[in-house]
């Protein structure tokens, strides 16, 4: 008598998976105020393109949106707009700075209310899809960020704050999700901002590995249970 259970290679993903397999609804919130010079803004866009290259982009994978802000806020594209890396990177290359002002709070509010919605392409009904906002700024907000950032975090958005050059560290900490040592980053110039690409990749990979490890442990328990049941059934059959 041969008792078999549906086979499942539970540990394949433990060794072969990486952060490319973790789907995210990701919205970049980018400061393009007057303090950000044209060459610096181009460097910021290159950083965003590098980030896109490091992720698996697709309707069932990671979706990307972009909120551009200065004294006004402009949604450049939504989470549902582009599902291919090439078109997404081309859209990033076309983004133009908006000039004066640094209304960071307004930008966060816009992202929460208009970019992270089902209408915009966010997968709000799925608890397995993380909502992530990455804010890049080089200045001090000219409006209140504490309350609106708290509301955004309470809605389930994980916020990373990237400060460049003259960025106000206290404001970055008020915006970012805890723990701050994992969600607040600072670089001296836009010329070295691309170094953060690997850091963000490591952060996403760590979260992915954690999820995989938990799945593996559950899977191992399942295998042990199945073996125990199989042995019990075989003993019962042999006894009869």
Overview of the molecule:
The chain has 240 residues and is an alpha/beta fold. The protein has one domain (21-210): Rossmann fold (3-Layer(aba) Sandwich). It is built from 8 helices and 6 strands, in the order αβαββααβαβααβα. It has helices spanning 12-16, 38-53, 85-94, 104-115, 146-154, 169-175, 180-183, 196-239, and strands at residues 24-31, 63-69, 73-77, 130-137, 157-164, 184-187. It has a 6-stranded mixed β-sheet, with helices on both faces. α5 links the parallel β4 and β5. α2 packs antiparallel against α3 and α4 (104-115) packs parallel to α5 (146-154). The protein is globular.
Low-confidence stretches: 1-18, 212-216
Sheet having the most strands: 6 strands, mixed
Mean pLDDT: 83
**What class do helices, strands and sheet pairing give?**
alpha/beta
Q: Calculate the terminal CA-CA distance, rounded to whole Å.
A: 12 Å
Roughly what fraction of the amino acids lie in strands? 15-25%
> How many domain units?
1
The CATH superfamily turns out to be: von Willebrand factor, type A domain
Helical segment tally?
8
Query: How much helix is in the residues?
Result: 40-55%
């Amino acid at each position: 008598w041969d008792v078999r259970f549906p086979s499942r290679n539970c540990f394949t993903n433990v060794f072969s998976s990486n952060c490319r397999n973790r789907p995210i609804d990701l919205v970049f919130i980018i400061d393009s105020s007057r303090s950000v010079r044209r060459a610096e803004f181009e460097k910021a866009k290159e950083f965003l393109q590098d980030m896109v290259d490091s992720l698996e982009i697709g309707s069932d994978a990671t979706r990307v949106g972009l909120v551009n802000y200065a004294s006004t806020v402009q949604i450049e594209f939504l989470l549902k707009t582009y599902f291919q890396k090439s078109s997404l990177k081309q859209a990033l290359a076309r983004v133009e700075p908006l000039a004066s002002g640094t209304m960071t709070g307004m930008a966060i509010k816009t992202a929460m209310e208009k970019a992270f919605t089902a209408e915009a392409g966010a997968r709000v009904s799925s608890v397995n899809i993380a909502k992530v906002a990455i804010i890049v700024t080089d200045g001090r907000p000219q409006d209140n960020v504490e309350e609106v950032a708290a509301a955004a975090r309470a809605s389930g958005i994980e916020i990373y704050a990237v400060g460049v050059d003259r960025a106000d560290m206290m404001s970055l900490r008020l915006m970012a999700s805890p723990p701050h040592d994992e969600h607040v980053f600072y670089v001296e110039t836009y010329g070295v901002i691309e170094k953060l690409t690997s850091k963000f990749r490591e952060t996403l990979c760590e979260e992915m590995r954690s999820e995989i490890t938990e799945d593996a442990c559950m899977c191992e328990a399942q295998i042990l249970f199945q073996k125990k049941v199989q042995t019990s059934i075989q003993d019962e059959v042999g006894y009869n």
